[in-house]
Amino acid sequence: MSESQQPQASQRFQVHLFVTCLADLFRPSVAFNSIALLEESGCDVTVPISQTCCGQPSYNTGDYEGTVPLAKRLIETFETADYVVAPSGSCVGMITHHYPNILEGQWRERALELAARTFELTQFLSEISGLKRANELRPEIGSVTYHDSCAGLRELGIQTQPRDLLNTLCKTDLKEMQRTDVCCGFGGTFCAKMPELSANMASDKLDTAQASGAKILAGGDLGCLMNLAGRAKREGMELEVRHIAELLAGDLATPAIGDSSQS
Amino acid sequence: MTVSSNDFVAQAAAALQEPERLRTRNALGTHMPAMRSKAAEEFGDYQALRDHVASVRQHALDNLDYYLPQFEQQALDNGNQVHYARTGTELNDIVLTICQRHNARKVAKGKSMVTEETELNHHLESAGLDVVETDLGEYIVQQAGETPSHIVGPALHKPEAEIRELFLEKHPLGPRELEDPPAMVEEARTVLREHFVSADVGIVGANALIAENGYSLLVTNEGNGDLCANLPNILIVCTTMERVLPRASDAAALVRLLTRSTTGQPISCYTSYYSGPRRQDDIDGPLETHFVLLDNKRSDILASDYKDMLQCIRCGACLNHCPVYIGAGGHAYGSVYQGPMGSVLTPLLNSLEESHALPNACTSCGRCAEVCPANIPLPDLLRDLRHEEYRSKLGSGRWRTGMKLHAWLSQNPRVYRFLTGLTIRTLHRLGRRSGGFTRLPFASGWTQERDFPAPQSDTFMHQYSKQDSQDE
Description:
Chain A has helices spanning 8-11, 21-26, 28-40, 56-61, 64-78, 89-102, 105-116, 121-127, 150-155, 160-169, 190-193, 195-211, 222-234, 244-248; strands at residues 13-17, 43-46, 83-86, 118-120, 140-147, 171-174, 216-219, 240-243. By secondary structure, chain A is α/β, with parallel strands linked by helices.
């Protein structure tokens, strides 16, 4: 019996979803749509209920010692999974690139093993589970410009994946903005420690997004998106800010980030 | 003008309120990266060149005890005098002593970040010497009584109109127009020529020291370095010990990398090697030449976890690519060195106490490390400095408490769920109509500049658990 004739069940990817703090607290639709997309691409999705934070805020603040227990906790929670998927480049970068730096010995080994099986959502959908969709099932989502989040772009090399997915899973008009490799000014605690500089960067990013002519500004990291949506609202700018999981799933019914949820 | 590195946030906020200067910086942040990236692409295997130079420099740093004495011996054989300075004060004293021994009255200086670091001009001027900066940017900054705002382009912060006014005021040349930059450059050129020929001592920096032949390397685009080095009778080359490279071919490789990284040029307009004093058959050149090699904590850095920082070739690419630098401008850093490289180097050269705000001036976007020709992991070094800041309890107590609470909650999922659930449901109820908050207690840093998007609903985990138990 060739591999392609194996029973259906064993071919399904066993995925544990790392929801991430921001999706859990502020934007559950990102997690629900991530589950929907993973299931559509042939995955069985489990959400380990004891998961919390990857420790990125502590780590970037410089509290390496305080981050170690969080890293160990996350490893214990997720290491039985075949694959770990998260709708955030920076949380995945934390696990794959930074855990090995703060852990030693056995724990470092376990971190590296987990890192090899941990993926950002668009990375997983394009490279591992290979989500495809028939033309008639592709939702119409209008014009979109994609913001490359720094950790996703530079630590994970995510650049073509979200764009390819938007083009092959949706009916969309993808418009590139200028200088997509420049940070939006979120930077975790940076945005609160240095608000003026952060806002200057967010405004620059919003200007280039608007100049692209797109109606929707999409991205893969809620930190960047909440920063950009919040700044757009403050400036009175008409730009829908959305996570890519919502767009790929065709969920435009959910109000955009920072929009009123009561009509 | 005294600016403290720890007042970075306020100084940066003030700099953002100067629209014309911000526009200039934005132009810098757009054009320089484009030029660098074009030059790197045209070169071909740029990464291979980076790796080659980095490995050569690493080798030289690892074997400084071999190459530094080799350089010294070669330089002595070429007729130079070689001095070592442990501190900035020692360098300043050595230079002043040389000047005084020759009864020097005027010093013509090429661009040198090392002497900015040691505040040499101030030291020499206090002793009654006339010191003239001859790099155009340095000259402008010196005339204006300011400090450099960019390690490569010291006067990039000054608008054209300010420079025109400055020249009209400082140069006693009568009524004139100075209508455009070429006219201003021409005037500076004329004024500076007089200084070159009347200077008793020339001081220049070095981009590299070559161990195998005892030469120093200097790249400039204005040729002022060569005039400083060749017209006065005495030449003093001030640099730091980590500039040593084993071979002349290594210096050539360094130039290929440096100029592309700095300005996107395949080579600088002037690339000079200085060997030593005038020889018998030479028609010109200095009569006496000195190398003053500064340590100023480089030995400590070499022995520390920050030794990668010594690989820096001072190209300025990390400044040009840093959106924080572009927003804040160089003066906000309160340091001779700015941008990502300055935010690492300043705490190492001064102290973390005096400059711990700088390692926080980073979003960890990684663009600097991506373009750094010396492959320095700048965001990692900045985070390591924040680690030291955290351990030394230098940062804000509020942040520490907040982070500790967050970490504790994250290890106690039940409490975490309970508290976050309560908060999120409340925020959702309060914010769902407007979509967000314009003010929030405990998040004023956020809401000062942007709205805080209201939570969409109850937490995902709460909704998911309910849905899960219904399914069962």
